[in-house]
Known about the structure:
This protein is mainly alpha-helical. 54% of the residues lie in helices and 0% in strands. Helix 3 (61-83) runs parallel beside helix 5 (99-110). This is Retrotransposon Copia-like N-terminal domain-containing protein. It comes from Malus domestica (Apple).
Amino acid sequence: xxxxxxxxxxxxxxxxxxxxxxxxxxxxxxxxxxxxxxxxxxxxxxxxxxxxxxxxxxxxxxxxxxxxxxxxxxxxxxxxxxxxxxxxxxxxxxxxxxxxxxxxxxxxxxx
Length: 111
């Protein structure tokens, strides 16, 4: 895995604060805005791909760094997504273990 592809930009764009919290209506609009935001933050891969795994024993330094970078991206992505939800939805979706699970669950529940 290319380490650059999992590096998270440290600055949160100001428009994130202006995003309306998703309250359960207009899911496609929220999803589009969230995907745009995650893309600008270099985090969209977290909701589209599986987490990296390794069968190496011991793991190389590069593999460890890639997994740690993914875990950090995962944490940030899930945090941004949960913070974009209304409190009632946050209570439900905070039970999801990963950002990908949250993304897929919200898609399924809004279909």
